[in-house]
Amino acid sequence: MMFTTADLKNLLQVWAEMMGKNADFLIDLDGIVGDSDLGLTMSDGFRSAADNAAGSDEADLGKTAYGAGKAMSNAVPSTMGTLMASGLMAIGKKFKGIESIEDSELPEFFQAYFDGVQSRGKAELGDKTFLDGLAPAIEAMRSSIAAGEPITETAVKAAAAAHEGFLATKGMLAKHGRAGGRGEQSRDILDPGAAVADLLLQGFKSFIETKGK
Question: What is the pTM of this model?
Answer without folding.
Answer: 0.94
